[in-house]
């Protein structure tokens, strides 16, 4: 009977893989992958390959099976020489031969030969056998050889980009409603060009000024003319006082700034305004002679009082624009020909004027008050300067890179500004982002004369001499990291052409998404 010598159990290491063997196998596998550990068959093939003699073409690769050269892995062929043109012919056409002027210019460029269009002078021979040897042949061949081995060659990787990918992703105009789309009403009554319009803060009445030396007050809901006031001069700018507790209108007529009570709206507000303006305030300080030479405050005559005129401010130069401060007590006027006295600030409660600037920084075109902060925007021909009225210093200077600024409008939030120029551009400035334009819009074919922001809706509009009123979407976000969204929405072209002039003024309704425009065709149009 056969019996085992040992009846003990197998050891654990007899059926568990050895760690040393696994490390050794892993090392061999790594060497095989790297090509450092070869089998006996591979070593035998390498020995036989070394014994064989290899032959190849030393200077050419025509017979080589490889597409690439043996010494140059990525060969770039040299550019070929340009083919000869008609001017290099031995019998070129007459238009290719140099005249005296062209020959004189060619000789002057001897010290700068790279500026020459041709490096030779075209010559004409009657037959080919009369053509002499080319004297610059050896030099040109030497230059060609120098270019071949000294000039580095490189491949230019061309990007294949779809044209659609270059266009910005803008939302559909249908998703940005409401905005004006159709003409709803035409206000007829003026006998000459309508240069400016303004709407009262409640949005009930419309004020217009024309070259027929009158201003008209219209009721927006019916289109009826309520009142016509003669002002005795061409009306270049008008603006309704933004203070709802006062019934005041500022009108620019030649060299006069007229403060008018239109006499429409709430009778209590109208009578309160008259009582305030009828009693002149006590002058606590003496007005300087410098200010007196620029502007003089006069009370209205009895005839002017009947027409609603309450105060007359006589300036020493022609006024171009007037604008109100947000609280309605201050007004600023612009006289482009006034040099360092171009801008004047008037206070209605004290009947005093002041000159904010001592030096002229350019031909002033327009001024605006900041809606929230004590800033004054002054636009010259090419730049916009922002002044701090409290500290009395320059706060910021905006570079427009335009030839001539025509108008500007500030966003109700106060951080964005649009500027219209006579060179057909509209510039959007983000005051928190940069002093350069955030976006340049080239939507018009002629000069942009007026721009405007809506006070409630994210809309802005521009009017031009091409009779086009363009309404655009301009969303300003509270997040400072997100840039404003600007999308052109609608082109409204209802005005008629008149002496190469189009739209002079653009303004929005204070509460509704409506826009008004006035132009050289003597009409005011409402788009809703």
UniProtKB/TrEMBL annotation:
WD repeats lie at residues 187-228. PROSITE patterns: WD_REPEATS_1, WD_REPEATS_2, WD_REPEATS_REGION. GO terms for biological process: maturation of LSU-rRNA from tricistronic rRNA transcript (SSU-rRNA, 5.8S rRNA, LSU-rRNA). SUPFAM superfamilies: WD40 repeat-like. The lineage of its organism: Eukaryota, Metazoa, Ecdysozoa, Arthropoda, Hexapoda. Residues 1-180 form the BOP1 N-terminal domain. InterPro entries: BOP1/Erb1, BOP1_N_dom, WD40/YVTN_repeat-like_dom_sf, WD40_repeat_CS, WD40_repeat_dom_sf, WD40_rpt. It comes from Schizaphis graminum (Green bug aphid). The keyword Nucleus applies. Its main location: nucleus. The keyword Nucleus applies. It holds the Pfam family BOP1NT. Keywords: Nucleus, Repeat, Ribosome biogenesis, rRNA processing, WD repeat. Component of the PeBoW complex, which is required for maturation of 28S and 5.8S ribosomal RNAs and formation of the 60S ribosome. It is found in: Nucleus, Nucleolus. GO terms for cellular component: PeBoW complex; preribosome, large subunit precursor. GO terms for molecular function: ribonucleoprotein complex binding. This is Ribosome biogenesis protein BOP1.
């Amino acid at each position: 009977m056969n019996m085992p010598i040992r009846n003990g159990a197998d050891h654990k290491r007899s059926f568990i893989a050895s760690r040393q063997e696994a490390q050794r196998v892993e090392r061999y596998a790594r060497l095989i992958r790297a090509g450092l550990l070869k089998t006996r068959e591979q070593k035998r093939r390498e020995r036989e390959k070394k014994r064989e003699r290899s032959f190849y073409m030393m200077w050419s690769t025509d017979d080589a099976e490889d597409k690439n050269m043996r010494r140059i892995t990525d060969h770039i062929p040299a550019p070929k020489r340009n083919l000869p043109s008609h001017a290099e012919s031995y019998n070129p056409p007459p238009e290719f031969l140099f005249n005296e002027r062209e020959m004189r210019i060619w000789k002057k460029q001897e010290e700068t030969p790279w500026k020459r269009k041709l490096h030779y002078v075209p010559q004409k021979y009657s037959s080919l056998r009369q053509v002499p040897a080319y004297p610059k042949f050896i030099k040109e061949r030497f230059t060609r050889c120098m270019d071949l081995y000294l000039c580095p060659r490189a491949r230019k990787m061309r990007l294949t980009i779809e044209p659609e990918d270059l266009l910005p992703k803008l939302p559909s105009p249908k998703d940005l409603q409401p905005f004006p789309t159709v003409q709803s009403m035409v206000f007829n009554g003026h006998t000459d060009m309508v240069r400016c319009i303004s709407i009262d803060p409640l949005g009930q009445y419309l004020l217009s000024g024309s070259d027929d030396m009158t201003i008209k007050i219209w009721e927006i809901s019916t289109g009826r003319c309520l009142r016509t006031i003669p002002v005795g001069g061409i009306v270049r700018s008008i603006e309704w006082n933004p203070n709802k507790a006062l019934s005041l209108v500022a009108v620019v007529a030649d060299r006069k700034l007229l403060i008018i009570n239109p006499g429409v709206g709430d009778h209590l507000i109208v009578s309160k305004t008259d009582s305030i303006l009828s009693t002149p305030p006590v002058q606590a300080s003496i007005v300087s002679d410098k200010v007196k030479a620029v502007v003089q405050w006069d009370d209205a005559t009895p005839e002017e009082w009947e027409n609603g005129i309450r105060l007359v401010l006589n300036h020493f130069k022609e006024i171009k624009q007037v604008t109100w401060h947000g609280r309605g007590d201050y007004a600023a006027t612009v006289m482009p020909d006034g040099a360092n006295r171009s801008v004047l600030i008037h206070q209605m409660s004290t009947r005093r004027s002041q000159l904010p600037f001592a030096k002229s920084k350019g031909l002033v075109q327009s001024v605006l008050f900041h809606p929230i902060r004590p800033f004054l925007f002054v636009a010259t021909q090419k730049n916009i300067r922002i002044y701090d009225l409290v500290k009395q210093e320059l706060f910021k200077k905006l570079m427009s890179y335009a030839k001539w600024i025509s108008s500007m409008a500030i966003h109700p939030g106060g951080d964005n500004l649009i500027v219209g120029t006579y060179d057909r551009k509209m510039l959007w400035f983000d005051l928190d982002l940069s002093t350069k334009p955030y976006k340049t819009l080239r939507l018009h074919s002629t000069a942009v004369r007026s721009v405007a922001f809506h006070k409630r809706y994210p809309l802005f509009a521009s009017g031009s001499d091409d009779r086009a009123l363009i309404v655009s979407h301009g969303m300003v976000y509270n997040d400072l990291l997100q840039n404003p969204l600007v999308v052109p929405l609608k082109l409204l072209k209802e005005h008629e052409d008149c002496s190469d002039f189009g739209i002079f003024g653009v303004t929005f309704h204070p509460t509704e998404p409506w826009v008004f425009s006035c132009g050289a065709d003597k009409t005011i149009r409402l788009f809703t």
